[in-house]
Here is the input.
Amino acid sequence: MQECISVPWSLPDELIAMAPGAIAPALVDTSAEVKTTAIGTHAICEYLEKAHPNPRLLPFVANECAEARRLWRWSEDSFAEVNATLLTERVNQWVRRSSDTDTASLRAGVHALKSKMTFLNGLAETRAYMAGRALTMADLSIAAHLSAYDYFGDVPWDVTPDLKAWYSRIKSRPSFRPLLNDKVDGTRPAKHYADLDF
Here is the structure.
C-alpha cells in the first residue's frame, strides 16, 4: 500500500527523482485514487492523518490539537541537536567504524539529551501522554527519537522515572513493538532495548 524510501545517510536515485530538494524519509502511496508522494516527516504524517484517519493521531479538539502540533514540532526541532552530535557520533563509531571518536560531540549530545529529558519528564509527571489525555503524533515523534538513542544505550532513564514509565507504555503498544526488532547492521542494541519492562 505505502512504499517508504529511506536509506540512511545517502540519497538514492529514486528519492532524488521524486521532487526537487527531496530528502528522506519519503512515502509513495500507490493505493490512493491518485498516486501520491509525501516527502519529509511532517508531510508524511499529515498525509496519513488525512488519508487514513483511523486511528487519529491529531486530536479533534482545537486546543489539544495545537498542543500536539507544538510538541511534535518541538521534538523534531529540539532533537536535531542531539542527532547532529550524539547520534551522528554513534553512527560513525558503530556503523561506519570510524577510529576517531569525537568526544566533544559526544559530550555536547549527552548534555543536550539530558536537558530535553528533564523537560519531557516534567510533562510525563502531569500528563498521561505528552500532549494530554490521548496518544498523539507528539508521543510517536518523541518516542522514535528516544528509541534511536536508547538503541546505543545513551538514554539516562534513571534520572527521569516518569518519562521512563511513559516510554515503557509506548514501547509496549503493539504498533511500536516491531520497531524494537529492527537492527542496525554491524551493531547490537543495548541489552534493555527491546525489554518492555526495562
Q: What stands out?
A: Strands lie at 2-5, 26-29, 36-39. The helical segments are 13-18, 41-51, 62-95, 103-126, 137-151, 161-171.
